[in-house]
Structure formats: structure tokens, C-alpha cells
Amino acid sequence: MSGASDKARFYLEQSVPELHELAAKKIFSREEINSITKKRSDFEHKLNARGSRPSDYARYAEYEMNLESLRRKRVKRLGVKTTNHTGERRIFFVLDRATKKFQGDIGLWMQYINYARKQRSNKKVSQILTSVLRLHPTKAELWIYAANYAMEDRGDITEARSYMQRGLRFCKKDERIWIEYARLEMIYISKIVGRRQILGLDDQRDQQEDENRIKELNGDVVALPAITAEDIDPHKRSSADVDQEALEKLSASPALLGAIPTAIFAAAMKDFKDSNKLCHQFFDMVAEFNNLPCTAQILVHLTETMHAFAPGDPETLIRWIQQPVIGTDISSAGFPTNFGVALDRIQTSFKRLESSSAVPNILRPRTILEQQIFEWLLSYLKYEDLDPDIRKVIVMTLRKVWSRFQSDIELDPSGREPEVSSIISKLQAGGIHKLAELARAWALRTWPDESERFFQGTDT
User: Fold this and answer.
1) Would you say residue 243 has pLDDT above 60?
2) Which terminus of the chain has fewer CB atoms gathered within 10 Å of its CB, N or C?
3) What CA–CA distance (Å, rounded) separates 20 from 267?
4) pLDDT digits over 186-200, tens only?
5) Measured between alpha carbons, how far is 316 from 319 in angstroms, rounded to an integer?
6) In whole angstroms, what is the distance from residue 403 CA to residue 418 CA?
7) Angle between helices 363-380 and 388-411 (to 10 degrees)
8) What is the separation of C-alpha 185 from the centre of its chain, rounded to a whole number of angstroms?
9) Where are the transmembrane segments (predicted)?
10) 359-373, pLDDT tens digit by residue?
11) Residue 257 falls within a domain, yes or no?
């Protein structure tokens, strides 16, 4: 025990000059200094005694963070000059001791990394990441975190890709790292697209195409290429011009067309033997980037792949139905056409489901698909600026899907009350009151003892 006390005293003595400075400059009162000393003494004795836990280190680090935050606020208010890095060094020291003693505790490592990241100490973050990844190479979440840090804080796609590729060597069978690797590439594409829009490169390309069409109409005019001083002397180009030229060339690059996320998807499918679940996860992730030019092309490829090995899966079919309208604004001129394509796919999906030999019991998958179509269609009714004609079409389609769903439930009504009750509540919330009342009346006839369930969420 004396050894633990000696260690605690040694660490406490190191903070004496700091405490003297805080007292001398009246940043903290004498009572507050005594309180800080006592608190640190309690923590140090706990940490250096047998039986210390990770939570003891975490609380100590949290206490020092709060103390340092208070010190900075008072220094700013009082307008005094102090040594700014003492508190930061102490916090790093506590967390470093914590991760050395409890190397397997990921929570402590993340607290350490997040604090260093908050202090914008990129060199320290890199050192910590190197240490934790060396100790825990099979933890996919750490490789994902490191890649996101490289992309978000450092803006380094090369380093981010390196983390992901190294992570795949150790975590090849973890679905998350494949999904997040593809997401990283989608984020990179979105950054490039955003920068092109800021520079107006897309607008320039459209304008050039218009000018070319006008020149083609003027057949009696010979168009000569415009020559600038920069064409004669390339050294006159500024670095911004070089960046702009690189972005223009990148527009025709396979990377900007989604080739890398598609390649990641293909590699993942080989490792997971055409996992339908993983395919759905890829689709949902890509659909989040609904404003990118390459999204539609990638989603078409994903739906084709899903249909190839799971044509009768309701999860596959609902995504195939939704695919034409993903990324299309409801107020755009193209929405009615794309929405019409999606509605046509509903009937086709039921036909595919019924003809699929891979589905032994067709009733259950069919009702799952019907419920998913309900949720998808109802999601559009919340938009106030939705075209009235499209709203009418949605209501008509909901009636047709309900009729099909009702017929399927009547074939096997046992235990289906919660599903029916959920749809009635959603119809009511979506403002489809007539259909909700028809559904409720049928449900009460089918399950007369469950009246309370079917009236939940109403004013009756």
C-alpha cells in the first residue's frame, strides 16, 4: 500500500507549480485549490491501489476536462496570462496511463482519441490510432473510425482508403466495413460533385454543349478553336486553373461515375456468397446519396444483382419498386413519370413473387410486401406541395393494396391483429380516413374481441 501512496504523492507533487500559479493569479480561490488537491489525491490513490477499474480513470479524465474548461473560462474573463498546456498535458497523461493499464478497454481508447481530436492534435490522434489498431486489428469499428477521421478532419482520401483496405485484411467477414468503405467513396464523390457545382463546371459544360449545337446549325460557318495566352504558354496557368482542369478531367473518370463503390459491392458479394441482406444494406446506403449523378446507375446495378439471386424476396421487391423515384424531387417535372414507373412495378412485383419457386409459403412474403408498399406510399402524403392528382393516384393505389392485403389476411387471420392495427393507425395518421374506417370495420368483424386494439389512436 505504501508503494501506491508513494506513486500517488509523486504524481500529485508534479501539479504543485500549476496550483501555485492558479492561486497567485487568483484564477481559483484558496478553498477551491484545496478542493482540487483533495479530489486529485482521491483519484490518484484509487488509480494506484490494487483493484482500480477503467471507470476510475474515465472519471478522473472527465474531472480534469471539466476543470480545464473552467480554468480557460476564468482566464478569459479575468484577462490574465497563464501556461495554457498544463491541463491538457495532465489529461493526456491520465488517459495514456489508462490505456496502458487497460489495453482491452475500447471505451478508454475512444475517450483518449476523442479528446485528442477535440484539441485538434492530429499528430497525437495518429499515434493513438496506430497503437489501438495494433492492439485490436480485428475490431472493424476502429478501422471505420480511423478512415472517417482521415476523411473528415484531414481531408485525405488516400489515408482513409488505406485504413479501410488494411481493415479489410483483418475484418473481411464483417459486413460493416464493406458498407462503410463504399459509403466513404460515395462521400468522396459527393465532395467532388459539390466542388464542381461551386466552380460552375457543370454549367459551363451545358453552355458549351448549347454553343456546339448552334454551330452545327450554321453550316456555312467554319468554327475555329479559340486560342488563349495560356494555350501558348502553359506556365501562365494558376494553381486554381490546374485544380479546375483536374476536376474537369475527373468528370469523365470512372471514379466519379461510381465505379469504386460498385467494385467494393462486387468484392463483398463474393466474400459473402451473394448475401441478400448485405445487398439490401448497400442499396439503402447508396440511396442516402440521392443527389449524386451516379446514384441512379449504381442502384440499377444493385437491383439487377438482387433480382438475380433473390427475385422473390419482399425486401428486394420493395427496393426495386422505390428505385425509379429515389433522388427525384416531388415538385420536379420528371417525378410523375418516374412515380408512374414505380407504380407499374407494384403489380409486376406481385407477379414475380407468385412465380418465384424460391418462396415455399407465398402468403407471408406477400403480406410483408403489401405492408411495405403501404408505408412507402403513405410517406408521400406528408408533403403539402404534393400534386393533387398524384395524391389521388396514391389513395387509389392504397385501396387496391388494402384489398389484396385483406384477402391474404382472410386466408390465415390467426395472430395477424397487430399488423392490421398498425396499418389502420398509419392510414388514420396519413389522413386516409375513409379507408381507415373500412379497414377498421372489417377488422372488428374478423376479430370481434379485439375492438380496443383497433380503436387505438382515435377519439372514440
Assistant:
1) no
2) C
3) 61
4) 999 999 888 888 877
5) 5
6) 18
7) 160
8) 12
9) none
10) 557 888 999 999 999
11) no
Domain limit, last residue, from 49, 70, 102? 102
The pLDDT confidence band at residue 184, using thresholds 50, 70 and 90, is very high
CA atoms within 13 Å, Cβ hemisphere of 36: 23
C-alpha cell of residue 376: 412507402
Cα separation, 12 vs 16, in Å, equals 7
Phi then psi dihedrals of residue 31, to 5 deg: -65, -40
Cell of 138: 480485428
Here the cell at position 285 is 446506403
222 Rama sector, left if φ>0, alpha if ψ -120 to 50, beta otherwise: beta
- CA atoms within a 13 Å half-sphere pointing along the CA-CB vector of 449: 1
| DSSP assigned state of 226 | P
Q: Please, is 94 exposed, middle or buried when counting C-beta atoms within 10 Å of its C-beta (0-12, 13-18, 19+)?
A: buried
**Alpha-helix residue ranges (DSSP H) falling in 53-174:** 54-78, 86-101, 106-118, 122-135, 140-152, 157-170
pLDDT for residue 7 is more than 90: no
Cell of 188: 468522396
CA dist 169 to 74, 103, 415, Å?
49, 22, 46
Count the domains in the chain.
Answer: 2
In a domain, 78, yes or no: yes
Residue 173: CB partners within 8 Å, gap ≥ 6?
Answer: 271, 272
In the structure grid, which three cell numbers stand for residue 247, read together? 476536376
Angle between helices 388-411 and 417-429 (to 10 degrees): 170
Residues found in the chain: 460
The better pLDDT of the pair 200, 207 is held by: 200
Which residues contact residue 338 at a Cβ distance below 8 angstroms, ignoring those fewer than 6 apart? 324, 325, 328
pLDDT tier at 246, thresholds 50, 70, 90: low
- Within a domain: residue 107? no
Task: Give 309-319 pLDDT, tens digit per residue.
Answer: 888 899 999 99
Where does a domain end: 51, 81, 102? 102
Least confident of 237-241, 385-389, 414-418: 237-241
Buried b (16+ CB within 10 A) or exposed e, 239-251: eeeeebeebeebe
* Sequence-ordered list of residues with C-beta below 8 angstroms from that of 247, at least 6 positions apart, any chain: 192, 195, 196, 199, 201
**Neighbouring C-beta atoms of residue 115, cutoff 10 Å:** 22
Q: For the CA atoms of the chain, what is the radius of gyration?
A: 31
DSSP-based three-state secondary structure for 431? coil
Range of the domain at 358: 308-454
